[in-house]
From TrEMBL:
<dbReference type="GO" id="GO:0106008">
    <property type="term" value="F:2-oxoglutaramate amidase activity"/>
</dbReference>
<keyword id="KW-0378">Hydrolase</keyword>
<protein>
    <submittedName>
        <fullName>2-oxoglutaramate amidase</fullName>
        <ecNumber>3.5.1.111</ecNumber>
    </submittedName>
</protein>
<feature type="domain" description="CN hydrolase">
    <location>
        <begin position="1"/>
        <end position="254"/>
    </location>
</feature>
<dbReference type="InterPro" id="IPR045254">
    <property type="entry name" value="Nit1/2_C-N_Hydrolase"/>
</dbReference>
<dbReference type="Pfam" id="PF00795">
    <property type="entry name" value="CN_hydrolase"/>
</dbReference>
<dbReference type="InterPro" id="IPR003010">
    <property type="entry name" value="C-N_Hydrolase"/>
</dbReference>
<dbReference type="InterPro" id="IPR036526">
    <property type="entry name" value="C-N_Hydrolase_sf"/>
</dbReference>
Length: 276
């Protein structure tokens, strides 16, 4: 199976971001990718709630989603939109941070709303209150694909190891971790967290990331860590995309999942304790 991770530097303008994303999808399809993955908030990286209110749409009217569904059908490939920021019917006006899997007919195969909100003071200058803008999801999702179960997560979820273990126990052989990681925590934690999740679960970890300096017409600009990554179930880093935007390909042999789990059966046979 050939995966293509699209590393993006999205701005806060969904209309301006879309042509670049679609050009990368075309490139990935031409390179023979079976599954094309994009980062968290593919449509809009913004720090301004007012701006988001003005530019975001609910799922049925989101132009990025419509265009990606058409692209999946045109190329007959699977596409995982790492996430879209979407309007919802939430009475408090909060958005959804929603990961969406599209099948090769262009139909939506699965959805996952990010569960863990990044409400963190990383440093004096880097503070995040994701829960002020987004409504957290409440349901974990393992999507069925031709290559086996795909456990869907988003960004900060990567720090909650039990979610990933649960996804693996529910049948995941791949975990998607689309991200817009902060540069400070990225440098310290990103790779080791992804490798830990892969080793603990015996899953392939597919982690497409936002990278670089994100242009913003409103509010403060943001920087992200980049380093989109694929990690094998034994823990090897198969792909580290560095910090340049673009299409990054990685060939994956799903037989490695059972091989790793047979060598160290921590996810199935040797499990004894499921919490208090
Ligand atoms: O804000 C949006 O529009 C979309 N959401 C994000 O970019 C989120 C919240 S700010 N980013 C993360 O979860 C980074 C986690 C991270 O960096 C860590 O765990 O260290």
């Amino acid at each position: 199976m050939r995966a293509a991770l699209l590393q993006l530097t999205a701005s806060d303008d969904p209309e301006a971001n879309l042509p670049r994303t679609l050009a990368y999808v075309d490139e990935a399809a031409a390179e023979g990718a079976d599954l094309i993955l994009t980062p968290e908030v593919t449509n809009c990286v913004s720090s301004s709630r007012e701006h988001q209110k003005a530019v975001l749409r609910p799922e049925p009217r989101d132009p990025t989603l419509s265009a990606m569904r058409a692209a999946a059908a045109r190329h007959q490939r699977w596409i995982l939109i790492g996430s879209l920021a979407l309007r919802t019917a939430d009475p408090q006006g909060r958005f959804a941070n929603r990961s969406i899997l599209i099948d090769p007919s262009g139909a939506i195969a699965a959805r996952y709303d990010k569960i863990h909100m990044f409400d963190v003071d990383v440093s004096d200058t880097e503070t995040f209150r994701e829960s002020a803008a987004y409504r957290p999801g409440a349901r974990a999702t393992v999507a069925q694909t031709p290559w086996g179960g795909l456990g869907m997560t988003v960004c900060y979820d990567v720090r909650f190891g039990h979610l990933h273990r649960m996804l693996a126990q529910a049948g995941a052989v791949m975990l998607s971790v689309p991200a817009a990681f902060s540069p400070v925590t990225g440098a310290a934690h990103w790779e080791v967290l992804l490798r830990a999740r892969a080793i603990e679960t015996g899953c392939f970890v597919l982690a497409p990331a936002q990278t670089g300096q994100h242009e913003a017409s409103v509010g403060r600009t943001r920087r992200t860590h980049g380093h989109s990554m694929v990690v094998a179930p034994w823990g090897e880093v198969l792909l580290d995309a560095g910090t340049h935007p673009g299409v990054h390909l990685c060939d994956i042999d799903l037989a490695e999942v059972e091989a790793a789990r047979a060598r160290v059966p921590a996810i199935h046979a040797d499990r004894r304790w499921d919490g208090p």
